[in-house]
């Protein structure tokens, strides 16, 4: 099989989001450039934006709490949307925790207007002419969420600079990415989602058509 010909990498700045049009067979490689950045990830059908990537439906079909290479990820209508075809990270990616939103930052005492993944998702789709009122539960790439028995915690990432994942689109979709803006120091109810220094960083992505 011929190796995919990825185009030049595009930087996704810290605290921002984007929506990338992908058609069946297209691949995207997402690189954790600095090693400490969590990337909230969604897929939205290009034909009907009410059909979205669903972590709940995916877990039911794969039997995996955390996706592994070879898994197909399903929509809320059980349509295969993405295949995880490569993952250089030996750890896990989270499918449990909701994205950050204005209400979380208000709860943490931040001033109104703090960047957040929910608003990044909605804004990225709006730039593509698609309307969304809310954000589904994302796939949180590189987010470290250990599960022990009935306990779930959020701790600093274990990912390394250059760690990357590659997805193949299984249908016509928009892949939405948000470099998580969490920068609130632990101690006020926040968690070191983007590393101990709580500093969001840019990541890079490249697409093979």
Name the features.
globular, about 210 residues, six-stranded antiparallel β-sheet, about 10% helix, about 30% strand, alpha+beta
Give an overview in words.
With 209 residues, this protein is α+β, with helices and mostly antiparallel strands. It has one domain. Helix content is 12%, strand content 29%. The protein is built from 3 helices and 12 strands. It has a 6-stranded antiparallel beta sheet, covered by helices on one side. The radius of gyration is 16 Å and the shape is globular. The mean pLDDT is 96.
Count the helices. How many? 3
**Anisotropy-based shape:** globular
How many β-strand runs?
12
What is the helical fraction, as a range of percent?
A: 10-25%
Structural class: alpha+beta
Radius of gyration: 16 Å
Strand order in space, largest sheet? 1-12-3-10-6-5
Largest sheet at a glance?
6 strands, antiparallel
**Count of all domains:** 1
Mean pLDDT: 96
Low-confidence spans: pLDDT under 50, at least 5 residues?
none
SSE order in H/E notation?
EEEEHEEHHEEEEEE
Distance N to C terminus: 15 Å
Strand content: 25-35%
